[in-house]
Design goal:
The protein is about 35% helix and about 20% strand. The chain is α/β, with parallel strands linked by helices. The strands form two sheets. Strands 3-2-1-4-9-6-10-8 form an eight-stranded mixed beta sheet, sandwiched between helices. A three-stranded mixed beta sheet has the order 5-11-7. The longest helix has 14 residues, at about 40-55. The radius of gyration is 17 Å and the shape is globular. The two termini are about 20 Å apart.
């Protein structure tokens, strides 16, 4: 199965480099890596171009002008140029376990999207990782708030991964789905501006279109580099957009991926 890995980023090239190295270290490589860049300055482009020369990965830089936080639009643009039949979404501050892509591939199932979790690294550990530009994590080591999420076990994953269509815990930083399922609901709603709820709206429309959720445990592991909390001034407006999708049982958005197709 051809997997398109889409990585969102904005002006954090030091974190992006560690993430790209973790992609390069995957046991099963993605078919392509698309960097969904929401208007970063030239240092990010320089990093991507330089890394692509020797990485052995197929890397595409999908860029849009910096007009504020527009992650929905950025993801839609990246999705529109993707060539894989299956899409994995991560953020540019998520360092991947070597089995991450393989786990998403093995767990992919028609009629479902996959929801993974994350290990939260603290500020000190993040500084160490960015300084060394490499990352190794042991479940018994220091530097995380929820280290049990770092346990990788195919056996435990089969037992504890569940199918349950709920919006609680939706995170587009560790999510995968068939491309056709995304196109059928018109991708992400670009009416969502600023931080929050665009991923929940996307999943709500998947649910309304008959696609269920499979939540992965002890599988598809990633490590979240620490950062300051995002500005949440747009959250109230985004909550209202999400509630409209829920109340009206919507499975389509007007401001979606079709504008790029």
């Amino acid at each position: 199965m051809r997997i398109s890995l889409i990585v969102t980023t904005y002006n954090r090239p030091d974190a992006l480099l560690v993430v790209l190295k973790s992609i390069q270290n995957q046991r099963i490589k993605p078919f392509e890596v698309i960097i969904a860049d929401d208007g970063s300055d030239n240092s990010t482009k320089t990093l991507i171009d330089t890394f692509a020369l020797t990485s052995g990965l197929s890397i595409i830089h999908s860029y849009q002008e910096d007009l504020g936080f527009r992650v929905s639009e950025s993801r839609n643009k990246a999705i529109s140029i993707s060539k894989g039949e299956y899409i994995v979404l991560i953020d540019g501050d998520m360092v991947l376990h070597p089995e991450f892509i393989n786990d998403h591939s093995l767990c992919a199932e028609e009629g479902f999207y996959l929801q993974g979790s994350r290990v939260l690294l603290n500020r000190k550990k993040t500084r160490e990782v960015l300084s060394a530009q490499r990352f190794f994590f042991h479940v018994l080591g220091n530097g995380s708030k929820n280290r049990l999420n770092a346990i990788h076990s195919n056996f435990l994953s089969k037992i504890f991964s569940i199918r349950k269509s709920v919006l609680n815990g939706v995170r587009s930083c560790n999510m995968s789905f068939y491309r056709k399922d995304c196109i059928n609901i018109n991708g992400f709603n670009s009416e969502f501006i600023g931080w929050g709820r665009e991923d929940s709206d996307f999943v709500a429309r998947l649910f309304n279109n008959g696609i269920g959720r499979k939540t992965l445990k002890f599988s598809a592991i990633q490590f979240h580099l620490w950062h300051d909390e995002s500005n949440r001034k747009t959250l109230l407006a985004n909550d209202k957009l999400l509630q409209k999708t829920i109340d009206e049982n919507l499975n389509w958005c007007d401001g979606g991926v079709n504008k790029f197709l």
